[in-house]
């Protein structure tokens, strides 16, 4: 028997609990909520527990990810366990030292997003190994932190084999995923704007199409 393993899929930037239930029920592994106030996908802290509870109702194994950027110490209380998320994704300019401090102070898993502007930026990955649970690579875009639909050139990532598990973000969608999985071997994929009707509102048909394309990929 040949066992085929697929990367995990996170769908990010949800704002509606009903969408969280439906997307988790499709078999998505993780759902992301944006806690960055400047984002059009921002969800206020008071609304996050309901969204994550709705996610859990849709899929028992689906876990919640809270996306933040350079959180200050005053924000740490809302990032801890007990609010429905299992992971905090650090999507700002957090240094290795700040990640280490946050890992000591927060009782949730930590992922560090690296926004990649050039192949040399990938060299930063090694320093985060053992500090955070996983890395997430997203494309760099001036003036915007994420959710841009911008892709990292695939050629930059061929041969990228960090010591930590890694997730690929940036313009992931049903049309591009087969090529990405044929050439790259991420542990997970993170998709947002390519699945949207408008910011914060996912198109369930496109989420299902992405899952189908991942499962149809020969090398996923
Ligand atoms: O989605 C946002 O608005 C956002 C804002 C601030 C930080 C991160 C954000 N999103 C992250 O970016 C990736 C990639 O998005 P896309 O697929 O290229 O649209 C997304 O999955 C979030 O993790």
UniProtKB/TrEMBL annotation:
<protein>
    <recommendedName>
        <fullName>N-(5'-phosphoribosyl)anthranilate isomerase</fullName>
        <ecNumber>5.3.1.24</ecNumber>
    </recommendedName>
</protein>
<dbReference type="InterPro" id="IPR001240">
    <property type="entry name" value="PRAI_dom"/>
</dbReference>
<keyword id="KW-0822">Tryptophan biosynthesis</keyword>
<comment type="similarity">
    <text>Belongs to the TrpF family.</text>
</comment>
<feature type="domain" description="N-(5'phosphoribosyl) anthranilate isomerase (PRAI)">
    <location>
        <begin position="10"/>
        <end position="211"/>
    </location>
</feature>
<keyword id="KW-0028">Amino-acid biosynthesis</keyword>
<dbReference type="Pfam" id="PF00697">
    <property type="entry name" value="PRAI"/>
</dbReference>
<comment type="pathway">
    <text>Amino-acid biosynthesis; L-tryptophan biosynthesis; L-tryptophan from chorismate: step 3/5.</text>
</comment>
<keyword id="KW-0413">Isomerase</keyword>
<keyword id="KW-0057">Aromatic amino acid biosynthesis</keyword>
<dbReference type="InterPro" id="IPR011060">
    <property type="entry name" value="RibuloseP-bd_barrel"/>
</dbReference>
<dbReference type="InterPro" id="IPR013785">
    <property type="entry name" value="Aldolase_TIM"/>
</dbReference>
<dbReference type="GO" id="GO:0016853">
    <property type="term" value="F:isomerase activity"/>
</dbReference>
<dbReference type="InterPro" id="IPR044643">
    <property type="entry name" value="TrpF_fam"/>
</dbReference>
